[in-house]
Amino acid sequence: MEIPIALVAADGSHEIGRFVLWEELPNDPEKVKLELSFKSHLFTSVESDFFEALRDIRRQLEPLGYRPKCFGSCRNAYASSMAVNMGPGMKVYLLRLGSPAKLADLVPIFDSSDDMILATVEEQQEFYDTWLKTFHQGG
């Protein structure tokens, strides 16, 4: 499957890239493969699910100053084990501090909207860790 993706640079400009997804590898059906190509760049990741593969690709992109414009790159997005089991990490929850994740909060990781707050992998992890603390404290 191929998915066009906008890549947002630090200055707000956009490049268009292309994700190519493999839902299972011939030599390891438990793994997925994600490739991102744009300009003369090619980034590849093989992981257990697409959310982790996207995080790996994002780590490779961060030194170049780009962030993929998709829900999987949002500060408040995270894939639970249940979301990963519903399809190889193709959906994430959009989390709100102090509130449990609901099925209505699931969105496809490669889709986008205009009101997303894109983040680094580290910023996303920090938000998730904070969400866990506020959720378990009841807000």
How would you describe the overall organization of this protein?
- This protein has 139 residues and is an alpha+beta fold.
- The chain has one domain.
- It has helices at 50-61, 81-85, 121-136; strands at residues 2-9, 14-22, 32-38, 41-47, 66-68, 77-78, 91-94, 106-108.
- The strands form two sheets. It has a five-stranded antiparallel β-sheet with strand order 4-3-2-1-5, with helices on one face. Strands 6-7-8 form a three-stranded antiparallel β-sheet.
- The protein starts with a strand and ends with a helix.
* Widest sheet, order of strands: 4-3-2-1-5
Straight-line distance between termini: 40 Å
- Which regions have little confidence, pLDDT < 50, spanning 5+ residues? none
- What structural class should be given to the helix and strand makeup? alpha+beta
Overall geometry: globular
Number of DSSP E strands = 8
Helix content: 10-25%
Using only CA atoms, what is the Rg?
15 Å
Largest β sheet strand count, sense and barrel closure: 5 strands, antiparallel
Give the tally of structural domains: 1
Number of contiguous helices:
3
Summarize the helices and strands and which ones pair or pack.
Elements: E1 2-9, E2 14-22, E3 32-38, E4 41-47, H1 50-61, E5 66-68, E6 77-78, H2 81-85, E7 91-94, E8 106-108, H3 121-136
Antiparallel strand pairs: 1-2, 1-5, 2-3, 3-4, 6-7, 7-8
List keywords for this structure.
8 strands; five-stranded antiparallel sheet; alpha+beta; 139 residues; 3 helices
